[in-house]
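pinned: reference chain
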Amino acid sequence: MQRAIQEHVARLFQASQYGEALTILENHLGATPDDWHANYLAGMACRFMSSLDRAIAFLVKATKLNPREASIFLALGIAHQLSGQFQQAVAALKQAITLEQNFIEAYNSLGLTYRKMGRIKDALKSYEEGTERLMELVSAEVHKDPSRCYRDEVIDGKATRTILPYVLAKTFELLKTNVLYASLRNNAGVCFLELGDLENARKLFQDAIECTPDGYDYPDPVRNLKQIDG
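pinned: its C-alpha cells
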C-alpha cells in the first residue's frame, strides 16, 4: 500500500471517519486484493462501524495473506467475540499469543472472551498470565541499569545486596504509562468478585485505581470497588 494512502487512512481513523477510510481501502483492494495490510485496516474499519461479518471476512483474508502477524489475529478474535462467536474468538486470540508471547492485549481479550463464556477460572488465568508477562517486560526495563537497582556491600562479614528505592519507583512509573496493567487488574478483580472472593477483588480494584494513568478516563475499578464497599 502506498505511503500516501496509509497516511490518509490513518488520519481518517484518528478522526473516526471509518466509512471514508473503508471506501479508500476498498478502492485500493480492487486493484491490489492481496495486500494484507489493507485487508487488515478494512477489517478494523468495519469493526469500528459494527459491521462484524464484513470485518471478519476482511480479517480472515488478512490472516491467510500474512499468517505470522499477531495483530491480525487479535483483531479477528475481538471481531468474533463481539459477534458472539466465542470459540472462534478463543482460537484466534490463542494464535495471537502463540505468535507473540508478550502480546498483553491478547491475554486481556482472551480473558474477556472466557468471561463472556462463563469460564471464570479460565478468564482469571488469562488475566494473571497477561499480568505476569507485563511485569516481566517492566522488570527487564527497570533493571537495564543494575547500579540504580542494587547496592552490594559486606555487612558483618556477609555479602549483602540491598534493593534501592529506584526499583519500586520506576516499576510504578512504568505501570502507569498505559492502561493495560490497570485493565488486567480490574478484570481479574471482576473474576474474583464473581467467584465470591471479595478480599482479593478489593485488592485488585485498589491496585487498578492506583495504577490507572493520570488523566485517563477509566472508571471501571472505582465503580467495581463501590459495588463491594457500597
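why pinned: The mean pLDDT is 96. Residues 1-100 form a domain with the Serine Threonine Protein Phosphatase 5, Tetratricopeptide repeat fold (CATH 1.25.40.10).
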